[in-house]
Design goal:
Elements: H1 11-49, H2 58-84, H3 88-100, H4 121-152, H5 164-184, H6 190-216, H7 224-227, H8 238-265, H9 270-287, H10 296-315, H11 322-346, H12 354-379, H13 385-395, H14 409-428, H15 435-451, H16 456-473, E1 480-484, E2 487-494, E3 499-504, E4 507-513, H17 537-549, E5 554-558, E6 574-579, H18 582-589, H19 596-600, E7 605-608, H20 611-614, E8 623-628, H21 643-651, E9 653-662, H22 671-680, E10 684-688, E11 706-710, H23 744-760
Parallel strand pairs: 5-6, 5-8, 6-7, 8-9
Antiparallel strand pairs: 1-2, 2-3, 3-4, 9-11, 10-11
C-alpha cells in the first residue's frame, strides 16, 4: 500500500517520521565529518611542522595548546552567534566564515616561518599554527556546538536532549585519530593528505548548508518542554561554571603530560600523539551516551586502584618493557579521564544552555593545556606536572569535601604536610633516606590508603606524599639543571664522583672522567669515555678516514652532547657541530662542567638549529666525514633518518666521504632503517655492533652501534677489511623511511624481538 493509500491519520505521521529521520541523519553526518576533519588535521599538520623543531616531543604539547585555545574561540563564537544572531543571520555569518577559510587551502606552512628562534620556540610555534591553519580550524571548531544548537530548534523529538550529538562528534574525532596513523599516514603522502583533507572540507560546507536549510524550514524555536514558562530551567551559576572548568582542565592537562611522557620515551610521531588523544575523546563518547556501557559508579569505584597501581609500578616495580610502560600509563589515564568526564556529563545543564556549557568545557581544556604545556616548563626545572595532575584527578571524585572537626582527616593531613616539609628540608641539605627506611615509609603510606580509600582529600594527600617520597629517593644534587623546550638537561656526578654525566631526561648524553681513583681532580686533555673511547666504533671510523686521507680531515657532527668528538681526531682535524638546543651548547662550552671543547678545540664552530635546515646552508662537498649522533636518546628525530636526509648528507660530503650514524637506542632497532635509506640512495652500509672490545660499566665505556654509509666499497677504507664491520643488506619486507613515511612501531617490535632472542640465548 502506497503512502497515498494510507488512512489520513497515518500518512502524515509516517511522512513526519521519514522527515525526522532524514533531518537527524543529515545533522549526524555533518557533525561526524566536521569532527573527523577537525581532529585529522591535528596530527597531519603537526607532523608537517615537526622537522623545523628537531622532532621535539614538546611540539605536540604546544600544538595541543593551540588546538584547545582555538577550540575555545570557536565555541565562544558559536555561543555568541546563537545567543545574539539566531536563525537566518547565524546561517549566513557561519557560511561566510567557512568559505573564507578556503583561501588558506590546501593546508601548508605559511611563508615567512622558515626557522624558529633560539628562545621562545613555543610562542613562535603558536604563531606559525595561527597564521597557517588558524581560520580553518576555528571554523571547524564552531561546527559542533553550532549544529547542535540548530538541531535543538528543528522541532525534532530528540531535540529536548541533544547531548547524544556530542557523543557522535567525539566518535568522528576518535575514528579520525585512530585511522590517521594506521590507514592514512603509512599509505598516503603528506602532500596528498592535504588535498584529500581539502576535498573533505569543501564537502562539509555543502553539508552544513544542508543542515541550515533544514533548520530554517523547521519551526526554528526551542522545544516546548524546554522553553515552557511553567517549568523554567535553572540558569547555571558561576559555581557550576567553575566546576565544569575544573573537571575539564584536569584531564586536559593530564592528556598533554602523559603524551609528553610517552613521546619522550619513544618518539615524537603521530602514533604516540593520537593514541592518548583518541582515548581522551573515547571517554567523552562513553559518558555522553544515553546509557554509558561503562557505568560511572564503576569508574569512580576502581579509579583509586588504578592510581595506586601506577604509584606501585613507579616506586617499587622497575619495568623495562616500554610497551608495558605505555599500557600502564594509558590505562590509568583512561580511567582518570573517564572519571572526570563522567562527573562533567552528570552535571550537564538543560539544552538551552548547551553552547555555554561547551564553551566552559573548552575553556577548562585550554586552561589545563596552557598550565601543562606552557607554564609548567617555565616554573619547574623538573617534570612535576604529571604526578600532580594524577593527584588532582583524585580530588575530582564525587564526595570531595574539606575536612570538618572530628572527621579524623585533620591529623592525617597535618602529618602528611609535616612529613613533606621534612623531606624537602632533608633534600635541601642532601640527606638521603637509606633503602630500608625508604621501604618502610612507602609501605606505611600504602597501608594508610586502605583506611582512606573512599575519602578523596586524604587519599589524594597520601598519593601525593608517595610521589614526593619517590622524587626524594631519586634526588640527585645537580651541577647544572635546566628545562627548556627540548626537555630537562641535568649534569650530575656518578661512580664515586669520578665521572660527570650529562642527562637529557633519563638518557645519558655523554660523560667525562673528572677524578682518578684517589679522588684527585684531573686536568688537561680529557680521557675519551662513553661511546667515544679508544678502540670503539667512533674511534675506528675517524681513524679509518684519517688513514685514507693521509692526514687531518674535516668532520661534521649532528648532535653535540658534551662535545667529546672535538677530542676524537688527530691534530689538525676540524669539527663542526650542528645542535638544536642552545643550552647544550652552553653546557659543552663551560669548562667547569665539561672541557672537551675548551681543551681540544676552543674555536670549534657550533651551529644552532635543526640540522636538516642548518646543514643545508653548508657548501656542498664540505666534509670528509659526517657523524649523525642524534638517536641515542629515547625519543628520536625521525626526519634525520629518512631517504631525503641521507641524500642531503651525501651532498655535503667530499668524494670518498662517508656518513656514520650512531643508532644505539634502548627502545628501537634502527640499523635496518639505515640499510633501507642507504639502498634508496644507491649506497652501501656496514654496521659495527662490538665484538672486538668489552664494555666496562664502572669506567663508562660503552659499545655503540654504528652504521657507516658510503657510496662505494672503496670509501670505507680499513673498515671494509674488518670482520666487525659486516655489510648490512636492506630487509626487502621493510619499507624505506621517507619524509612522508616512517614506522616507529616496526622499529620498536624489532628491538623487542632482538631482546627476546638475546635473553633466550
Amino acid at each position: 500500500m502506497s503512502t497515498s493509500e494510507l488512512p489520513t491519520s497515518e500518512a502524515p505521521q509516517r511522512a513526519a517520521v521519514a522527515s525526522y529521520g532524514l533531518l537527524l541523519l543529515t545533522f549526524i553526518a555533518a557533525i561526524f565529518v566536521s569532527a573527523a576533519l577537525l581532529f585529522a588535521v591535528q596530527p597531519m599538520f603537526t607532523k608537517m611542522v615537526l622537522p623545523r623543531l628537531g622532532g621535539a616531543a614538546s611540539v605536540w604539547s604546544v600544538a595541543i595548546v593551540f588546538f584547545q585555545t582555538t577550540l575555545l574561540a570557536g565555541y565562544a563564537y558559536a555561543h555568541l552567534l546563537t545567543r545574539f544572531q539566531p536563525g537566518r543571520s547565524s546561517v549566513i555569518i557561519h557560511l561566510v566564515v567557512l568559505a573564507s577559510a578556503c583561501f588558506l587551502l590546501p593546508l601548508h606552512i605559511a611563508s615567512g616561518w622558515g626557522r624558529p628562534p633560539q628562545v621562545g620556540e613555543a610562542f613562535w610555534l603558536l604563531g606559525l599554527f595561527t597564521v597557517s591553519i588558524g581560520l580553518p580550524f576555528f571554523a571547524l571548531s564552531a561546527n559542533g556546538p553550532l549544529l547542535q544548537a540548530w538541531f535543538v530548534r528543528t522541532g525534532h523529538p530528540d531535540a529536548k536532549d541533544p547531548y547524544f550529538l556530542y557523543a557522535a562528534s567525539n566518535v568522528g574525532s576518535f575514528l579520525a585519530l585512530i585511522a590517521y596513523p594506521v590507514a592514512v599516514e603509512p599509505f598516503v603522502r603528506l602532500g596528498d593528505q592535504t588535498w584529500l583533507w581539502t576535498a573533505g572540507y569543501y564537502l562539509l560546507i555543502a553539508m552544513v548548508a544542508g543542515c541550515s536549510l533544514l533548520m530554517l524550514r523547521s519551526p526554528n524555536r526551542l522545544p516546548d518542554a524546554v522553553a515552557s514558562d511553567t517549568t523554567p530551567a535553572v540558569t547555571p551559576s558561576w559555581r557550576d561554571a567553575a566546576i565544569w572548568v575544573a573537571l575539564a582542565a584536569v584531564p586536559s592537562g593530564l592528556l598533554i603530560a602523559v603524551t609528553a611522557h610517552i613521546s619522550t620515551d619513544v618518539a615524537a610521531v603521530p602514533l604516540f600523539w593520537t593514541i592518548p588523544l583518541a582515548i581522551y575523546l573515547l571517554t567523552f563518547v562513553i559518558v555522553f551516551q544515553t546509557k554509558p556501557f561503562i557505568p560511572h559508579w564503576l569508574v569512580v569505584a576502581v579509579q583509586p586502584a588504578f592510581v595506586l597501581f601506577l604509584v606501585i609500578a613507579i616506586l617499587m616495580i622497575p619495568i623495562e618493557s616500554i610497551v608495558l610502560q605505555i599500557v600502564i600509563h594509558l590505562s590509568v589515564f583512561f580511567v582518570c579521564a573517564l572519571m572526570c568526564h563522567g562527573e562533567l556529563a552528570r552535571r550537564r545543564p538543560p539544552p538551552q544552555f548547551l553552547t555555554s556549557y561547551y564553551m566552559w568545557i573548552s575553556f577548562g581544556g585550554m586552561v589545563g593545556g596552557i598550565l601543562t604545556g606552557l607554564v609548567a616548563p617555565q616554573v619547574s626545572s623538573r617534570i612535576i606536572e604529571y604526578p600532580l595532575l594524577v593527584v588532582l584527578t583524585l580530588l575530582c571524585r564525587p564526595g570531595f569535601t574539606l575536612p570538618t572537626r572530628g572527621s579524623g582527616q585533620y591529623p592525617l593531613l597535618l602529618a602528611v604536610a609535616v612529613a613533606a616539609l621534612l623531606l624537602i628540608g632533608m633534600a635541601a641539605v642532601d640527606i638521603r633516606l637509606d633503602t630500608p627506611l625508604y621501604a618502610v615509609a612507602v609501605g606505611f603510606l600504602l597501608g594508610l590508603t586502605v583506611q582512606f580509600w573512599k575519602t578523596p582529600l586524604p587519599f589524594a594527600a597520601i598519593v601525593a606524599m608517595l610521589f614526593l617520597v619517590n622524587h626524594y629517593n631519586n634526588y640527585i644534587t645537580s651541577n647544572y639543571l635546566v628545562r627548556n623546550f627540548f626537555g630537562v638537561l641535568n649534569v650530575v656526578e656518578a661512580s664515586d664522583d669520578r665521572f660527570r654525566v650529562l642527562y637529557h631526561g633519563t638518557t645519558a648524553q655523554g660523560a667525562q672522567r673528572i677524578r682518578d681513583y684517589d679522588g684527585n681532580l684531573l686536568t688537561g686533555r680529557p680521557d675519551m669515555v662513553s661511546e667515544f673511547h679508544d678502540g670503539g666504533g667512533f674511534a675506528q671510523v675517524v681513524d679509518a678516514m684519517e688513514k685514507k686521507a693521509g692526514g687531518p680531515i674535516n668532520m661534521a657532527v649532528i648532535g653535540l652532547g658534551t662535545g667529546a668528538l672535538a677530542c676524537r681526531g688527530s691534530a689538525g682535524t676540524t669539527v663542526t657541530f650542528y645542535e638544536i638546543d642552545a643550552d647544550i651548547a652552553r653546557i659543552a662550552r663551560d669548562p667547569s662542567l665539561f672541557n672537551y671543547i675548551s681543551e681540544c678545540a676552543p674555536k670549534t664552530q657550533i651551529v644552532i638549529g635543526d640540522a636538516r635546515l642548518t646543514l643545508a646552508d653548508a657548501p656542498d662537498g664540505s666534509y670528509d666525514l659526517l657523524f649523525v649522533d642524534a638517536f641515542i636518546g629515547a625519543a628520536i628525530p625521525v626526519h634525520l633518518l629518512t631517504r631525503e636526509a641521507l641524500e642531503l648528507y651525501f651532498r655535503k660530503l667530499k668524494p670518498g666521504g662517508i656518513v656514520a650514524m650512531h643508532v644505539s637506542n634502548r627502545n628501537l632497532e634502527l640499523a635496518t632503517v639505515v640499510a633501507g635509506i642507504a639502498q634508496a640512495n644507491g649506497a652501501i652500509v656496514r654496521v659495527y655492533d662490538g665484538g672486538d672490545i668489552d664494555e666496562d660499566v664502572d669506567e663508562h665505556r660503552w659499545i655503540p652501534t654504528i652504521a657507516a654509509v658510503a657510496r662505494n666499497e672503496a670509501d670505507f677504507g680499513s673498515l671494509a677489511k674488518s670482520e666487525f664491520w659486516p655489510i648490512r643488506e636492506r630487509d626487502p619486507h621493510q619499507r624505506v623511511w621517507t619524509d612522508d613515511y616512517s614506522n616507529i612501531v616496526g622499529a620498536l617490535l624489532r628491538h623487542l624481538r632482538s631482546r627476546q632472542v638475546s635473553s633466550d640465548e
